[in-house]
Amino acid sequence: MRLRQGRRDKRRRGGGDTANLAEVDASAWAELEGAAADPQSAFRYLNLCSVDAGGRPQARMVVLRRADAARRILEIHTDVRSPKWQEISANPLVTILGYGPQPKVQLRLQGSAELHGPASESATEAWSLLPRSTRSTYMGGPPGDEIGEQPASEAAGADADGRAFFGVLIFRAETLDWFQLRHADNRRAVFAYDKLGALTSSRWVNP
User: Fold this and answer.
1) What are the C-alpha distances in Å from 130 to residues 35, 57, 122, 127, 135?
2) What mean pLDDT is predicted for residues 131-155?
3) Three-state SS string across 52-73, please?
């Protein structure tokens, strides 16, 4: 009993102050903002999880293209013909998961995704910044289809560079579950944000 009580007391002493929580939140978002500009960052590639029409969870790795800490926004690019585009169109609630081996931190964000199609301002601006090599990845057939000739209907309506199939996913975080593995006393904190991105609550929780 004394051992258990000691652990609880140690956790309270190690993570009960508001300033420390604020630092954790700021550090997590700084990592994401840095990852959007650094291909070598562990958080450059994130796991995006959605739910399909059958209620089954679907997860895939995506590239983080932009992060806005002030607004709690992440930007991801995708093919509008992909299953995830269809899944999120039906259910915008998604989870994003990332892990950095140093200092062994997991970030699990939950929120909603907004989809911006090829004709949107967001997609037009994002497309203009893409290198030719990245644009070419949108020229093939629909993701997940058997490799073969592109349907004539799509070939006729597609831009030569694939722009007609390019979409932008804007994820707005509602919560962040921060978890750090340590040799002893793993740490975990949960943060919540309002629609404008302001921090509304933060607390330490059991790992």
Assistant:
1) 17, 30, 13, 5, 6
2) 79
3) CCCCCEEEEEEEEEEEECCCCE
